[in-house]
Design goal:
Helix content is about 10%, strand content about 20%. The protein has one helix at about 30-35; strands at about 15, 25, 45, 55-60.
């Protein structure tokens, strides 16, 4: 959820190469994915992008994909 607007919740799946925010996909190499990776519930992460306002997000839920057994 956006720290500025807590009711504005978004769910994203961080992927290796695809960004489609309408469908909830975010490529791992994007600035937003980089600040989200490693975050845990209740963390407040800060997104800083040149020439854009700073944005803060509060982590409400984290689901990690399980590695496939070999």
């Amino acid at each position: 959820a956006s720290a500025e607007n807590p009711e504005n919740e978004k769910e994203v799946c961080i992927t290796t190469c695809r960004t489609d925010l309408e469908q909830g996909f975010l490529a791992a190499n994007t600035p937003l994915a980089q600040v989200l990776l490693g975050a845990v519930v209740r963390d407040e992460v800060v997104l800083r992008v040149p020439d854009r306002p700073t944005r803060r997000f509060i982590i409400k839920k984290v689901v990690r994909a399980m590695a496939e057994a070999t």
